[in-house]
Amino acid sequence: MLNPTAVGHCMAAVDYRYPWDTLIGRFKFRSQPGWAPEMAGWMADCLRREGDVAADALMIPVPVSPRRLEERGYNQAWELCRALRRCTGLQALPDALFRVGDAPDQHRLPPAQRLTNLLGVFAVNPLRAEGLAGKNVLLVDDVRTTGATLDQAARALRQVGCATVDALVLARALADADQEV
Question: Is residue 180 part of a domain?
């Protein structure tokens, strides 16, 4: 598993295995965004247990591609952020990051390809860049498999001068598992 150098600390509420993998599949691929509040509660518990995230951290959801957003109708990371706001009181910026181009979906690629598939695919919204300089950021996503997505998103945020970039995910894939997430 990749140890993302651009992400300071990555926290995960659960391991990506039964029953969590089934619930995440429903949430992410079967049009069931109603799971977000319950899942965000688990993530908030994790943050209280493990987090030494700054109290002023800005939550930024990992963006999905425009095609995926159109297909799904929602960004699962943003749904988690919205629910986490209510649990934590942290501010969220849904439009801070966007995807450039349309890279293949990570969950369909073998681990080795996941590490390079997203190189340069994230960019900071130019209207948000100046306001992010010096800020503490908490990237939010549903699943961390190799860490490539979080790493590339964090690199884009660090380029505009974010002070810290930590991550909070619902689930992390186990290092010895060859899972499709």
Answer: no
Q: Which tokens in the block code for residue 90? A: 């942290």
Q: Compute the average pLDDT of residues 133-152.
A: 94
Work out the number of other CB atoms within 10 angstroms of the CB of residue 83.
21
In which band, very low, low, confident or very high, does the pLDDT at 119 lie, cut at 50, 70 and 90?
A: confident
Residue 52 lies in a domain: yes
pLDDT reported for residue 1: 39
CATH number at residue 40: 3.40.50.2020
In a domain, 178, yes or no: no
Q: Distance between CA 121 and CA 164 in Å, rounded?
A: 20
How many Å apart are CA 96 and CA 106, to the nearest integer?
21
What is the per-residue pLDDT across 35-50, written as a single tens digit (0 to 9) for each? 999 999 999 999 999 8
**Residue 137 near residue 110, CB atoms below 8 Å:** no
CA distances from 60 to 23, 82, 175, 177 (A): 23, 10, 25, 28
